[in-house]
Amino acid sequence: MFRFGPGSPVAAAAAALIVALTASVEAQRPPTQRPPARVTAARPAGSDSREAIARRLCSQCHPFEFVIGVSRTREQWEGVVENMVGRGARGTRAELAAVVDYLSENHVLKASTVRGGSGPDDKPIVDPKAAAAAKPLYTASCLACHGPDGRGTAQGPNLVRSLVVLHDRYGDKLGPYLRASHPRAGKPAGSGSPFEALSNREVLLLAHFLRERIEDTLRGAPMFKPGNVLVGDSSAGARYFQGEGGCTQCHSPTGDLAGIGRRLEPVNLQQRFLFPQPSGGRGRGRGAATKPVTVTVTTESGETLTGALDRIDDFNVSFRDASGNYRSIRRTPGTKVVEDDPLAAHTALLSRITDKQIHDVVAYLEGLK
Amino acid sequence: MISVVLVLLALAAQAHATGSEGWPTYHGDYSGQRFSALTKINAQNVKHLSLAWSYRLSSPGTIKSTPLVVDGIAYVSIPDHVWAIDARTGREVWHFEWDGKGGNHIGNRGVAVAGDSLYVATPDCTLHSLSIKDGKERWRQTICDLDLYYYVSNAPLIIANNGGTHLIVGVSGDDLDIPGYVESHDPSTGALQWRWYVVPQKKGDPGFESWPNEDMAKHGGGMTWQPPTYDPELNLLYVTTGNPQPVVAYKNRPGANLFTASIVALNPDDGKMRWYFQSSPHDTHDWDATQVAVLFDGEINGQPRKLLGQASRNGKFFVLDRTDGKAIVSSDYVYTNWSNGFDEKGQPIPNPEKEPQIAGALVTPNQGGATNWPPPTFSPQTGLFYVSAAQAYSVWYIYDAGDNPQGWGGTDRGGWSQNMLQAIDYKTGKVRWSHKWEGGGMSGLLSTAGNLVFSGDGSSGNFVALDATTGEPLWHAGLRSGVSNGPITYTLDGQQYVVVGAGDTLWAFVMNE
Fold first, then answer.
1. pTM
2. Is B411 within 8 Å of A161 when comparing Cβ atoms?
3. Cα gap B239→B229, rounded to integer Å
4. In terms of domains, do A142 and A69 share one?
5. CA distance B101 to chain A (A)
6. pLDDT tens-digit profile of A141-167?
């Protein structure tokens, strides 16, 4: 009963019913009584009596795996269950509530962590499982014109930039478009759509697939990963390390750096040798620096104090002395403050090292297994 | 409506007498100078400046907006909120809260006030008109499409001239590949007057030749997320535009990508472009050129000139003739390593080797830029352009090495930075003095005829007054967090106030006599 033909009276009535029933369920529940986001851990299959109820009720008409093949929001599951009741599913009120609870807790859409604060609050959430399930259909029906990632070809437009796709919510715009308005290749406009027979489920799967393609373009998307940074000349890197770079003043390939190529990914090796400061900035006592900045203060009276820098600005300096005592001193015109940053040599590299030298050094360090 | 026009004309007339009464626009006036002629607080007595009041927002947020002060009331905003505060006492008069529908809540630059109306844009693409009496909404308009990941952080600007009154507002959003634009609305009804697209929307539009095809051009970005400046005499609106899209992975958009990362002069009556200057041709480092186009009159080779200065996010400083956009000075205000000099127009020439690479390219500035949105200041008294700056390095990577990257196919990682206040001689573009800050982060600036520059010192959390001529720090106050907006000054009852936002609190200082 998930499959109902487009434009049929049954489909329209069912859709209206979903909306009406979902709305009434919402209306009966003031926001303050809205159940909090549940964090119940998924239970092993079969151990949840609610699952048994869901399996029993749903399996009367569908394979259960088909039902749970697409994740949905709680509101959407409520709509589906109400819809099924309208189509003859029978259960007690408590059983139906248990089905909604089970499905909402175990097969719920999880908000994307990619650019979560951008876009509308009600933007669609991708179900990776549904997006994956759409691949055979996309490959067979869409890929030739729209390309493997939906970004378009000479034969078809870019779907990532499609207003129909960007305005879509779980197929509500995509479905009507695909069934009624999608052009037929090689035929004049108005010749009917080649996708008139797409089911609601197929539309929903495609909607998830296309939304996932959009998310693949957002900053921080999981698919965005560094490429190959091992493009340098290891022997040139060794020469730089021992010569111009001045690295051996503090480091040894057989001492502190022995095995460094095993411990760090190449891109992290590159980052660490260029920016060893614990949290960006100038590494002035921030975070858990392995070697803190030390500061030597000569006061107006001629007293000299030294310690690990805590904080410094134009007006005051604070530090912990060798005994662990906290000291705070006002920077008057007669007060002399000298900082000793153990990472200063790394900072000095930034304005003179070339990209080739960087790649050579990374290749050399990577070889220190 | 007539009263609105009169107020606006009066406001335009006092464009260069900032702060003599209040602080009526985002920049204090149309010029973007953020220079006040007030002298009650000055380099001689600033060491006695003391706290008048503080106001902590009644809803959590960070004050990035510059407050307006009109008739003794200060108006301050964060995303979805506006407060009216008694500028004498720091007491709340009213609070407007909008139940928004989404959008990036990264910040709100501020509001516009004209007559008895206040205008504010919220992140969910909504432009609102409120009554300044009680904050009640009068009208609202949707100005962008949330589903395309647009949002609004901009402070609207009201201008009035013989062509009517215009409520100017720009848009934000660089997640998806979408075009930037700036709009003008009728302040009394909200009706759209015109929209100017930053990037060509069809073949043949101006700038189209700088894009490979129509699809790339019309999705080419260029957000207008900072308030423009305006010259009432020339009747030119100076709009600054953001980075092109796709942002870092640039393979499918060869060309200059006009009019992204540019300064453009528009006729505010019809939204038509008069001239442009591109601060970052073919940007590949997310370096918006939305930094303030500061308008000032100066002297070049003994001749009086109408000038425009910008310290751009890419580390370059430009002085243009603001009548025609021709460059007079192009220079570096911090060390940069990404360009091969300047072209015949005075625009930087990008070095292809310092574009993002798969294996990484070490570039300065970093993505945050040599400066960013915190507003600079220009003092006609010293002839110096002051900007909160950073010498910042990071490594830039291409993550999507395909032929058709979209959105964010790369980024920068890591970094080291040194923050500083740069005082630039506009005639030469050379840094006259530089004051390094121990803390990280940037600050909005204010200069006054009392030979002072006010700035935050980043994460150190101090609000500092410096000698505008020498850069020597003369006074400071430790606030709970770093300065997060542009400081302002105004007089009430003969007393000069300086107000600054730091995190969720406004701090007001006054010279007690």
1. 0.90
2. no
3. 7
4. no
5. 6
6. 999 999 999 999 999 999 999 999 999
